[in-house]
């Protein structure tokens, strides 16, 4: 199996606030952000690809060109002539972000409607990453088809990573969100939950509660993030341990904290690091990211 990381989901037009109060346009989205950080960390003999559906209009062309310009393979981008890409705007208050979305005509909502394309896109990847947002934008039938495709890829030897990134407004209620998250977890080897979201959705009291749920779903590695608190890491091989958070002098923008963590963790695992070293490197990267504006921080790799 080739050295290939595929991150799959929705990349969107991003409008992010600048220091002057204006907005800068960029391209971002949770699974794309993860691919972007992984590309900067992985050596050249690894291919990092982004899988999604986009339109054939000018902004879709610009997005595809941007992705390719960042060194990310675009052969897994499917083009749909009757749709375009979504847009979101970030609002910041004391470093915490909120989002406004315009994604009704997003082509990415159709990324699992062509089973042949999906099978070809997933086939032969050594590592595949997706999130609960990837699942949330799909119809229930497409969600099941997508996860069935991941299960087949996993059976063929792909390592599957799942970030339980929750956006309640994308789901048809809390029960649908719980069902979707557990469907995603059921086909994943690595689960990357955030404890505050798990508490809100499931009522977890401790990280051990979160770990137990995803153990039962079949994950072999679980990494529970907790904002500025410690990361709790469990693996079937080594049990549970904790790593203290990397100190941060000033939080500027938490937009891609979890996405950069995922990119750092998966990239270091792919390079042969231990789970503990991968988690520590991911925490250090996320700590740097949240001290800058925007989802993607090129200056960290200058």
Automatic annotation (TrEMBL):
The keyword Kinase applies. InterPro entries: Carboh/pur_kinase_PfkB_CS, PfkB_Carbo_kinase, PfkB_dom, Ribokinase-like. GO terms for molecular function: 2-dehydro-3-deoxygluconokinase activity; ATP binding. GO terms for biological process: D-galacturonate catabolic process; D-glucuronate catabolic process; DNA damage response. GO terms for cellular component: cytosol. Residues 3-296 form the Carbohydrate kinase PfkB domain. The keyword Iron-sulfur does not apply. It catalyses: 2-dehydro-3-deoxy-D-gluconate + ATP = 2-dehydro-3-deoxy-6-phospho-D-gluconate + ADP + H(+). It comes from the Bacteria. Keywords: ATP-binding, Carbohydrate metabolism, Kinase, Nucleotide-binding, Transferase. PROSITE patterns: PFKB_KINASES_2 (PS00584). This is 2-dehydro-3-deoxygluconokinase. It comes from Pseudotabrizicola alkalilacus.
